[in-house]
C-alpha cells in the first residue's frame, strides 16, 4: 500500500505516469500481496471462483458491492472502492445501478428498501384502509401471517413508507412520529424506550405514567406528540409481537405490555383530541392467534377487523421477482422467472390446489435471488447463475456452508456453539431465539476449559483465553452477517430467518444429534441468568438430579464450550456447593463411624430397630394409602347419582391409590352408572327436541346428561349419546343429517356422527353453561349461545372457533339462523332478541317488546318473520323488514320455552314450562287453532320436516322418572306414538350366547330386544299378559323363551334378530310360571311353576314330555347341569331337589338347614362340580357329595339372583339390598360390591366370553357392568380425554388419575 501512495506522489510531481491499473488487476495484486489464493478469497467473499477470475481478467466489471466485500476480506483500507470512484464519476448519469442488490436475502425488507418492495401493493392498501378505521375505533390493528409470509417486510417496507407519503385521511399525518420495535425479553422497556426516543418525552415520566395506569400513559403520550387542536398521533408498529409470549418469561409483564398498547389507542376522558394518542399495529405470527384471543382487548380488536397476510399468488410472486430487478436496471434471462415459480410450487399449466407460494418460500426465494445476483452477467440474472446457487433451498444451504467453510477449524467449532445458541430447541421442532451479543462473545472456550479452573494458572493467562474466545465468536458473527444469514444490532444477534434452521443440513444435524442435551443446556443458561440477576443467590443453584442432568449435558469439552461464562460459573458454583455438602456429609459419616466403632452392640440393636421401623413405616404407608383409597371410594359413591362422570374419575383415583375392594367396587359401580352403560329412555327432565332432515330420526336432550336418538317410525331408542357432565340443553342436526350437535351446562358443545353415534369433537371456549345451538344452512358453521353472554361461531370442518359475538353481560338463551344463512337471531335475558349479520359479525337490529327474558327464537321458512318466546308467558311475531311486532300470542300459564314454525309457515307451535300444553297458532289470522295436552309438563315442541307430525318432550321434576316423549298428528292434533326406551319396571334379563343381543322383560308383559354393542333397541316383543318372570336363550341363540305370571311360556324365533317371530305359546301350568331353562343340547326346555310342578318340553315339537311333580310348594327356580343329566329345582319352602333326567326321579334333596327363605335362583358352575343357590344367603353345594361347601354372607337382605361368570372364577349375586356382589369361587371371599343399581335387582345375566354383566332393576333401566377394573380404568380415561372431563366436571380437585 505504501508503494501505491508513492506512485501517486510521483504522478503529482509531473513524472510520466504508468498506464492506469485496471480495477481487476488491482484486485489481483492486492490479493497476492495478502497471500490469498483465488479459491480462499471466493470462500471468504461468498463469490464463485470463476466469477472472481473473470473480474481479475477484465471479462466482468468490479462492482461496488464486490469491491466493498474484498476490501473487508483483504484489509485494504478501501483501496478497491476508491479505485472505482473515477469510473463512477465518468459514468454518472447514464449508468444503471448494477452495484445495488435489490434482494435482501433472508433478511426482511427495511424502510430503506421500499423501492425494491413489490408484489404486496394490495396488501399495503388494505392495511392502510384498516388502519384508517382505527382513527375512529379503539384497539390495535393486528396483522396475522404465517412465518415467512413477509409480514415484517409488509410493515417496514410497505406500511411505513406509505404512511410517510401521508396516505392517512388526516392532514399532516406524513410527519407523525413512528416507533418501530420488537418486544424482546422486556417488551414494556422496549415500548417506553422507543416512545421516548421518537416523541422526545421523558423516559422517566412515561414509566411513571404507566405505573399510574393506562389512561395516564395515553395522556402522557398524547401530550408529547401534540398539543391543543393539533391532530397528531404516535404510530407504534410492533413487529414480531409473538416475542411477547416466546421471549418474555413474566406473564405479568406480558399483561402490562398488552394493556399499555390498548390504552394508547383509547381517547383519554376529556382530552378533546381529534385522533387517538397512538395508532398501534401488531405484526403477529399466525400460530399465536389463540394466544392473542386470551386477552379480551385483543380479541375485541380482532373482532372489529384484522389483516391476514397469506402467501403470495402467482402474479404477486412474479412481480416480487421481476419488479426489483426492473427498478435496479437489471434484466432477467427468459425462463428464469418460470423456474423460480416452479421451485416455489407454482407451475403454469398444472392444476394445483391453491396458486400461492408455500409458507416460508419468500425468504428462500429472496436468498436465491440474492445469490443469483452475485452470479449475474453484464447486468442480467441468468438461469445458469441461479443453478449455481443450488436452487431455493440450496441457496440458503450453500451460502451457509460457504460461510462455514471459510472459517478456520477452531472457528468452525465456535460457529457450532454460536449458531446453536441462536436456536430455541423444543421437543419436536426448533425456532430461532434472539441472543445478547455479549452472550455469544462469551462462548466457545472448549480448549481452555481445564485451564479456566486450574489453580496454578495466572489471571492474565485466563484473560488471554477469554479474549481469544471473544475474537473467535466475533469473527463467526461477522462472517455469517456478511453472508446475510444473521441479523445484528447494537446489542443483539439473531438468525435472519427460521428457514435457515431447516434448509442447512449441517445445522439441522447439529440440532438432531443432541436435542435433549441442548434443551438441558438452554434451561441451564436461563437458570444462570436468573441466578446472576438475583445477586448469585445460592438457593437458586442446582442440586440433586437437576445438577446431575446438567453436569451430564455439559460433560466434555464441546458441551462445556457451548456454555456462557455465567452458565459455567453457575454450574461450577452448583458443583462446588454439592461438593461442600458431600464433604460435610463425609465428615459427619466419619464422626458417626468413630462413634459406631465403640458401640457395636448398640449398632446391631439400632439396625434391628431401624429394620423394624422401616417395616412399620412401610406398613403405615400402605395403611395410609388404603385409608385414602377407601375415603376416595366413599366420596365417589356419594357423587354417583348427581355427578357420574366426576364420580368415575374420583373412583379411578381411589383405585390407583390402592386397589382395595372398596375402590374396585366404586370404580365398577360408578362406570355402570354412566348413562352410556344403561339401556333405557331418559331418566330426567327433557328440554329440547329436533327432527333429522329426513324425518326418520328424532333427537332429545335431557337433564340426565345425555342426548338420545329415536326412530320416529317405531318409537324405539336408536342410540344414547353420553359424555356431557351436566344437563344437555340443546340439540341440532346438520343440514345433511350426518352430524348432531349437542350443548350442555358443562360449558361445552359436542359434535356426533349420526351414523356411528361416535363423538367427533368437543368444542370448548365458553366460560359458562351453553344453552342453544344451531347449524348454518350451508352446514359449515355452528352457532352456540351461552350464559357467559356470548354467541360463538365454530368452523364445523376444523372444529375451531371462528368468531365471538358479544354485546354485554346479558346471558344468551337460544340461537337460530335465517333460511339464507345471512342472519343469526339470538334470545337474551335482557328481554331482547338481536339479529346479527353473520359475515360482518355485527348487530343489525334489536327487537324489544318482551317484559322478561327471551327464551326462544325461530325463523319462518320464508325468512320474513321471526317468532320469539319469553318468560313473560307470551310469544311474538316480528316483521323482519320493519323490525316491528306483528302479533302477540297469550294464553300460556308459564314461561314460553319453545317456539317452532310448521314447514309451510302457516302454523306456529309454542310450548310453556309447567302448564302442560303446547299451543298451535295460525300465523295469518293470529288465532289459536289447537292445543296438545295430556303428555306431561311439555317443555319443547318441534315439527317434522313433512309437516304432518309433531313431537313434544316433557319434564317431571323427579329424577329417575321417565318423562313422556310423544309424537302427534299435526293435522288432527291427536297422539300418534309414544317413544320408549324401556318398559315399566324391568323384571328379567337374558344375554344371547354370542353376546350380541340382550332381552329384557318388564312388569307389563313386554320384552325389549337390544343390540348390546350399539346400545340400540332392536324391537319390542309382546309377551304374557302379566309380568315377565324370566327370560332365557337357547344354547344356539335361535330361540328366546319367556315365562309369565299368566301361566304361559312364549317362544320366539330369533334367527332373524331384527324381525323375531313368535314360534309357540306353551300352556299347561295351572299357575304362574316362575322360571325356565334350556338343556345344554337345546332340545328340552324346563319350566318351573307356582302349581308345585316342573314341566319338560320338546323345543322342536313344542309338546310337553314330562311333569316333575311332588314339590311341597311352588317351584321358583330351575337349572340344568352342564352335562344335561341332572335338573335342579328350587322350591319356595327352601329345599332344592336334584332330578335324574333319564329316570325323571329325585336323586337327592338338599335341606334348607334351618333357613326359612325360599330358594330363589339356582346355577351350576361351568364345570358342573358346584351348585349355587340363593335364599336368605348364598349356599354352595358339592354335586358329588351333595354336601354344603360354603355359605357366602354379606348381603343385608334376602338374595334373589345369582349367575356364574363364563370362566367359573366369579359368582355374581344380587338381592333386595340393592347391591350386586362378586365372589371369588376359590376363596369364597368378596371381590367387589356393586352399588347404584337403582332398585332391587330383578334379573342377572353374564354375557358369554366377556367380563360383561347385565342387570335389570325396578327403576326400568337395564345396566351393563364391565367387571374388569383395568378395562374400566382404560375406558374412563378414554372418555375423560375425548370429552375433556377434567375441564368440565365439578369437584375435580384430585390429580388426574389418567396422567
TrEMBL record:
SMART domains: HTH_XRE, WD40
Comp. bias regions, Basic and acidic residues: 1-11
UniProt keyword terms in alphabetical order: Repeat, WD repeat
InterPro entries (alphabetical): Cro/C1-type_HTH (IPR001387), Lambda_DNA-bd_dom_sf (IPR010982), nSTAND1 (IPR049052), P-loop_NTPase (IPR027417), WD40/YVTN_repeat-like_dom_sf (IPR015943), WD40_PAC1 (IPR020472), WD40_repeat_CS (IPR019775), WD40_repeat_dom_sf (IPR036322)
Superkingdom per UniProt: Bacteria
Pfam families: HTH_31, nSTAND1, WD40
Region (Disordered): 1-27
WD repeats: 679-720, 721-762, 763-804, 805-846, 847-888, 889-931, 979-1020, 1021-1062, 1066-1107, 1108-1149, 1192-1233, 1234-1275
GO MF, one example: DNA binding
Annotated HTH cro/C1-type domain residues: 27-71
Protein name: HTH cro/C1-type domain-containing protein
Taxonomic source organism: Streptomyces mashuensis
